Each structure stands twice: as C-alpha cells, then as structure tokens.
Amino acid sequence: MAEGISQNDSSKENSRLEAFLSNKINLAVVGLLFVGLFLLAFGAGMFLLRGSSKDDIKIISSEESASSKAGEIIVHVDGAVKNPGIYKLAADSRVNDAVVAAGGLSQDADSARINLAAKLSDGTKVYIPSHNDPVSSGSAGSVAGEVAASLININTATEAQLDSLPSIGPVTAQKIIASRPYSAKEELLSKKAVGSATYDKIKDLITVY
What range does the domain containing 36 cover? Predict the structure, then answer.
C-alpha cells in the first residue's frame, strides 16, 4: 500500500515538473518572438532613415556658400519712395529693382528724372528725386536715381563701378580703364574715352585723384 502511494506522488511530481518546463519553454519562445520582431522593425527603420537622408540632405560646400553671398549686393534706397531703407538685391539688379524693393515710387516722385534701367553695384545709394527737389547746376543732363554716394575715381574704379554710371556700359568702361591715367576728369573727352553727351551725364558723379 505504501509503495502504491509513493508511485502516485512521484507521478504527480513529474507532471508538475513537465508543466513547469512547458511554461518556461512557452515564455522563452514568446520572448524570442518579441526580440525578433523588435530587431526586424529596428532594421527596417534604419534602412528607411538611411535612404531618406541620402535624398533629403544636401551638404553645401564653402565654395557654394561663397558664391551665394557673392551673388548679392546691398543698396540704400532713399528719396521719393514708399519705404526708404537698406535692401539686399541680386548682383545684376537695376534701379527699378531697388525701387520695387522699396515699395515703389511715391506720388511726388519725379519719374522724368529717373533712369530705372541703370545698373547697381554693392554699396550704392539710390536717391529718387521728387518734383520739389531742385536740379543742381551743371547736372541738367544727368539722370537721377543713379549712384548718389561717394564720387567715383576714374583712375581706380573697377569696371563694375564705372558700369554703374549713367550711359556707361561694359565697352565704355573698358575704354575708360584703357585710357588711364587721368590728371583731370575732362581728359575723358580729350582721350576720347567717352563722348560729350555721356560726359555731361557723369561729370558730377566722378572725380580724379
């Protein structure tokens, strides 16, 4: 009788052990499945991130950055415009672009004295005259809305600076440079660098030293 009870207890212990081991195995399998799914999702995310970074991220070199800055100029727009101030424009801008940036001409602007097609250079001050602004003596033929900052020294000015003067284009600017040096600005005429009509327009905007 005692032997039968002992065998029965041993059978129960074996059943409990098998159930315990079965639960452990099931938990281990579930854990491995979760780890596998996590690694799969992580790998897919890294793949997508790597692919998008190649398409979306652009590294700008120092040369590209410098060329971007070189393609801009800063000008001061004053006078008969709606919003006088300092503006950043493209390097090939004209007086008209500066006027547009400043909100356009005001009602009292004297448009007959403005050359909207004149080229601009960095550091230029564009002054738009009003009907109340007097025309200075000796400058009746000059065009308002041009460079109104410091006078341009024709002995040292660059082609771009000369090109900003009224009626001066790249060809005439090169002729002025080729005829240097000048001891007086009137030598622009004697050296035939410019004609008399052009000289009358620029004589109050240039200097020699």
Answer: 1-57
